[in-house]
Amino acid sequence: MSWSAIRIATVLRAFRRTELLVLVAAIAVAVSASSTVGLFTDRLQGAIRIESATALAADLRLESGRSAASLDLMEREAQRRDLQTGRTTTLTSVVHAGDIAQLTSIIASDGGYPLRGTLRISPTLYGPSQSTQDLPPVGQVFIDPRLASRLKVNIGEIVRVGVSQLQVAAILADRPDRGTGMAEVAPALLMRGVDLAASGLIGPASRATYALLVAGDPDAMDRFSGWVKLRKSAAEKLLTVAESSAQLGSASERAGRFLHLAAITTVLLAAIALAMASRRFARQRQDEVALLKCLGATRQTIIRRFAVELMAAAIAGALLGVCLGYAAQSGLAELAKTFTAVAVLPPASVTPAILGVITAIVMMAGFAAPPIMELARIPPARVLREDLSGRKIPLFFPALGAVVSLLAILYLYVNDLALVLGAGCSLALVTIIYALIGNGLVLIAKKIRPDSGVAWRYGMSALARRPRETTAQILAFGLGMTILLLLGVVRVGLLDAWRGALPATAPNYFLINIAPTERSSIEQFFSEKRVPIDFAPWVRGRLLSVNGTLIANRMPKSDRGRAFAEREQNLSFSADLPPDNELVEGQWWSRSSGLQPAVSVATEFRDELNLHLGDRLVFDVGGDMTEAKIQSFRKVRWDGFRPNFFLLFSPGVLDASVGSFLAATHLDEEGRKALLEFDQKFPTVTVLDIDGVLNSVRTLIDRAAAAITYVFAFTLLAGLVVLLAAVRATADERRYEIAVLRAFGASRLQIVSGGMAEFAILGALSGGVAAIASSAIGFFIASHWLGVPWRPTWSIWLWGVSAGTFGVTLFGTASTWRMSATRPARVLRGQNS
Amino acid sequence: MTKEVSSPDGLLTIVDAVSFSVETAETLAITGPSGSGKSTLLALLAGLDVPTRGSVILGGLPFSSLDEDGRARLRAGRVGFVFQSFQLIPSMTAEENVRLPLELIGAEDAGVRAKQALADVGLAGRARYLARQLSGGEQQRVALARAFVVRPTLLFADEPTGNLDRANGIRIAELLFDLNASYGTTLILVTHEKALAARCGRIIDLIDGRIVDESIHE
Ligand SMILES: Nc1ncnc2c1ncn2[C@@H]1O[C@H](COP(=O)(O)OP(=O)(O)O)[C@@H](O)[C@H]1O
Ligand SMILES: [Mg+2]
Fold it and tell me: In terms of domains, do A412 and A491 share one?
């Protein structure tokens, strides 16, 4: 047969077959789920990049403590590369108004600040603010509300900076790079660079920090930051988007991981549906193949004929899937816009669409091609003897090949080897379990004929009569339900963990520099306002040696490790293990054992410095040598935004050296008004406002949660397609049996209850096992991979067994019901369909 | 020629040392009670199956020298079939069913020829009906059109009237022999109906896979 002999009309007609439609649906769901996730994670990452950039006021920030001149070369290079640039000078100095003086963080710029994010100014103290593109005019300044209240100045009044007199143009309500670290302690003043130069504050002795800000498209920025890394001197500090904002990173990473998991499971579900549908597709066309062979068709002709149909289905499915994917993804992006100020999401790329089409082809090749090959082996003599069928070809290896290639494609999507391998292994394990259960069920059904009622007896015997199909159905139902339950529980766990990590009452204000003598009066101040507040002692100290070896002699290689070893660290002590901390090794000190000086170390610090339990650490704390033994390691959840420390000492070790306290509290609208009063009462205490950061993290989490729910819907859809395909797997045989039973006088009720029994057994069995399997896999995924606490619930069992039984029975019974309505004569005369 | 198959009761000989030859344009009937091996013999003659021992030689070429695809190629365009259970593809129209053998040999004017063949069996008006929408008699007429549309040199028919009522059976038989006569096709017809067999030039009577009688008419 020539290619021209394959008529479009015939191919189109083939689409009237439900099986081909199920095939199209399976592919569409797989492709749309994976491309949605691909497209969306692309965009989510882009959005996070933008949020992180806001915290730097640029995509890249290069700081020098020496001179502005050293940054000029870098700036010229950035400009040569068509990147946006800006410069700032910051220094801490005293600002005067009348006879009041206040230590102030001065930020000066002549343009290009901020490159990312916006300034917000307001005409009154703590009043409504609006964003602005402009720096203050020459001769004028924007000042932090706390500075205004301490200097007791209003808009239009004069402040003195060095030798210059400058007019307050507006209250600086917010700026993108408002620090979230603890380094910045003084309220800010924003002024022109030329004014700063004229103020006389800049001189050889002044400790100013000069910064170059650069922004541009991500690829160009990556190249530029690589260029800078090679050329910058040790005195220059490079900050890039990629490194900033660990909190945003971890939430989005989890969301991304979940989305990837959802994509993988959806594709696998769709593959199951595809496998079931193509098996039936092949079985239904055995007669046609036998006839074609009689009429002189060769095996090749037959394969070609069906390959065209399947390819048409694959292409239809892939196109549909890509369209659905783009639609869903723009839906997600719309959704995202309502949550966030980030309106400009980076455009989606076409790669996911291409991968989508490849997914479709691989799914077809692995799951649909083998049954077609088997089909081509149907002996032509079948036209004379119905029971003849082709030699079975092993379906295992092609399916294995397809799963492996699918996982390979998924790896391209998700770029997470551990996940892909884990998914592959769990899938293999669960498949083996279900295959065993399927075979077991067939054996049992062959032996046992329950005496209780015709329905059960008929149901059991039906299972035994079709061993291959029973096993296939158990596999499909079981795998389908395992995957759905798994994703369901992981999703709930993830959302719970997120809500738990950032409760509405998470601290949004930090108080720094609290003198030990002030502590009780501050405690009283807040308790009068009924606002709870937590204090932590805050000590600065530098690590000197580990087990007697000077730290200089065991310097870590990484930048972070070097910072841990070289810089002064924030130390604290506590009698109890603080919230958000989890002991991973060693023991927490009990109150009675407080004799030996002990320290508990965060895992990040341990890993960078390669520390072990029992190591002796010596710190220089304000000139005193303090020694302590490592008694435990802690995993700290930084995304809770509570004050936490890499190094926590046992009580008694540092008590004498406490320089100041740190406090964290949650202030609502009402509480915030008390800040004015607080500022006046405790002028030396620095108030750090992280409400903005918290809000952007919350926004991100909301968005990720919405995305997760959205993508989960695709998985549910895939689950339904599996259910449909698996129930239909035995439809042809059952149709015939039903016709015979009807002919012998069985009532419709008897037939339907027999079918109901059969599917109830299948559903309950696969649902029960799915509950076990998804609990086990869910535990690993949650605890080892998403890093969220896992608590097994009984509801998953309830869900597994009841949804499994109910869903499968419902679909199965419905299909039996419909079939029992056909007149038996039609079926028996071979006019089925 | 012998065909043995394995069954739950051990090896079963279905066609037992049968040997005969058929001339071009001859009409041969194979008769015998149900289960005597007629269909199996037909399958062997048409190369749909291979004998355990012995061989089938078609136009000097032994089927045994060909693989399944080779035998299929040999059938294409030369051999027609009519079956007891019609074997139309239910999801295709009558016309598409008739076109099928033409498409397999890449015939140019498949559409025209298929329409003509349908008209020859009196079903021009049913061309666009799906096969499953037709009555049994109509289906078998479509099958006849499909069998003759390629002008086969050899036609195999297995109980062509077995699934039809008397009136339709007679009508199909008339059509079959008319078409056969007008194209001069060699016919091998399997039937247990004596009347039908009697219309062939030669009758082979089969019992338990052996030829028990052979008679020549006319
Ligand atoms: N492949 C096979 N396997 C087992 N038994 C077979 C096979 N082919 C034919 N038979 C048996 O051989 C006998 C002859 O079958 P068949 O040729 O269909 O007879 P007829 O067409 O004369 O009714 C029957 O009893 C049938 O069950
Ligand atoms: Mg027969």
Answer: yes
Which of A187, A218, A243 finishes a domain? A243
A43 Cα distance to chain centroid: 12
Evaluate whether residue A833 is within a structural domain.
Answer: no
Judged by average pLDDT, the poorest of A215-229, A397-411, A550-564 is: A397-411
Domain boundaries defined on chain B: 3-216
Nearest CA in chain A to B68: A298
**Both A323 and A458 in a single domain?**
yes
Going by the DSSP 8-state scheme, the letter that residue A714 receives in this structure is: H
The CATH class for the domain spanning B3-216 reads alpha beta
Handedness of CA A755, A735, A297, B114 (dihedral sign): negative
Does residue A149 lie in a domain region?
yes
Residues A746 and A816 occupy one common structural domain: yes
**Residues A40 and A67 grouped into a single domain:** no
Record the tokens describing residue A265, joined without a space.
């499971």
d(CA A370, CA A395): 6
> Considering only CA atoms, which residue is closest to atom 24 of ligand 1?
B35
Tell me if B213 sits within 8 A of B49, measured CB to CB.
no
Q: Are residues A579 and A628 in the same domain?
A: yes
User: Count of CB atoms within 10 A of residue A494's CB?
Assistant: 23
Question: Do A743 and A670 share a structural domain?
Answer: no
- The pLDDT, as a whole number, for residue B203 is 94
Q: Work out which ligand 1 atom sits closest to the CA atom of A388.
A: 1
The candidate with the shortest Cα–Cα distance to A773, out of A486, A380, A413, A371, is A486
Residue A233: predicted pLDDT: 79
Q: Within this chain, do residues A333 and A262 fall inside the same structural domain, yes or no?
A: yes
Q: In sequence order, what DSSP letters do the residues of A452-498 get, joined into one string?
A: S-HHHHHHHHHHHH-HHHHHHHHHHHHHHHHHHHHHHHHHHHHHHHH
Residue of B nearest to A831 (CA): B132
Protein residues with CB under 6 Å of any ligand 1 atom: A 385; B 5, 7, 12, 14, 32, 34-40
Distance CA A207, CA A106 (A): 12
Residues 6+ apart with CB under 8 A from B157: B81, B82, B83, B147, B176, B187, B188, B189, B190, B191
Decide if B146 contacts B134 (C-beta within 8 A): no
Q: Domain tally for chain A?
A: 3
* A297 contacts in chain B (CB < 8 Å): 72, 76, 104
Environment class of A321 (CB within 10 Å of its CB; exposed 0-12, middle 13-18, buried 19+):
buried
- Tell me which of A215, A243, A271 is where a domain ends: A243
Q: Which atom of ligand 1 is nearest to the CA of B43?
A: 17
In a domain, A300, yes or no: yes
Q: Which residues of A touch B (CB under 8 A)?
A: 1-2, 4-5, 7, 9-10, 13-14, 16-17, 287-288, 290-301, 379-381, 383-385, 829-831, 833
- Taking residue A404's Cβ as centre, other Cβ atoms within 10 Å add up to 13
**Mean pLDDT, residues A751-760 taken together:** 86
DSSP states of A117-136 as a string?
A: S-EEEESSTT---EEESPPP
Torsion (CA) A480, A484, A489, A494 in degrees, nearest 10: 130
Whether the link from the prior residue into A516 is cis, omega within 30° of 0, is no
Q: In this predicted model, what pLDDT tens digit does every residue of A608-655 receive, in sequence order?
A: 889 999 999 999 988 888 899 999 999 887 766 777 888 999 888 888
- pLDDT digits over A447-474, tens only? 876 666 667 777 788 888 888 788 888 8
Which domain does A102 fall in, by range?
A: 59-243
Ligand nearest to the CA of A385: 1
What tokens were used for A680?
A: 């006046």
Distance CA A170, CA A172 (A): 6
At A301-342, the pLDDT tens digits run 888 888 888 888 888 888 888 888 777 767 766 655 554 444
Q: Is residue A53 part of a domain?
A: no
Do A382 and A253 share a domain, yes or no? yes
Decide the pairing of beta strands B210-216 and B202-207: antiparallel
